[in-house]
Amino acid sequence: MIDLSHISERGFWDVADLSDAPLVATHSNAHALSPSPRNLTDAQLQAIAETKGVVGLNFNVGFLAEDGSSDPALPLEVMVRHIDYLVDKLGIDGVALGSDFDGATMPSAIGDVSGLPRLLEALREAGYDQESLEKIAYRNWLRVLRLTWGE
């Protein structure tokens, strides 16, 4: 499995052409909602969906905010909007949490790993049921790892 989160778009397509494994971007977001070059275009999301891969939501505010700002006051609703968009493009089996806790600017509402229950609650309030929350929280990563490693 090759993580496509830190690769250029051209590199993404090179890997997509060569790999038989599900495509994964462990911590990336939707370019349509935040036009950072780090975020994934709809065409990239479709390629990931076609391989039954996964995109893990990046919590870095600069990759979530529509204007690319680094203001940690970013509301949880922006994260939910990215999850909604990714689910729309990939299906519920193609979306996970990716964080990027190791040095990125986190939304104040999350802060660190102890804030994850607040994000899951915001997703629940947005209509995600328990099965969907479990998929997003960890089951989708387990699924793609099993597909990749043939377990």
Write the CATH architecture name: Alpha-Beta Barrel
Q: How many helices does DSSP assign?
A: 6
Q: Determine the strand fraction and express it as a percent band.
A: 5-15%
Form type: globular
Average pLDDT figure: 95
Distance between the termini: 14 Å
Number of strands: 3
User: What structural category do the secondary elements indicate?
Assistant: mainly alpha
N-to-C series of helices and strands: HEHEHHEHH
Amount of helix: 40-55%
What is the number of domains?
A: 1
Characteristics of this structure?
3 strands, 151 residues, 6 helices, mainly alpha, globular, TIM Barrel, three-stranded parallel beta sheet, 45% helix
Characterization of this structure:
With 151 residues, the protein is mainly alpha-helical. It has one domain: Alpha-Beta Barrel (TIM Barrel), CATH 3.20.20. Helices cover 45% and strands 8% of the residues. It is built from six helices and three strands. It has helices at residues 9-18, 42-50, 61-64, 76-90, 116-125, 130-149, and strands at residues 24-25, 54-58, 95-99. Strand 1 (24-25), helix 2 and strand 2 form a beta-alpha-beta unit. Helix 4 crosses helix 5. The longest helix has 20 residues, at 130-149. 34% of the residues are buried.
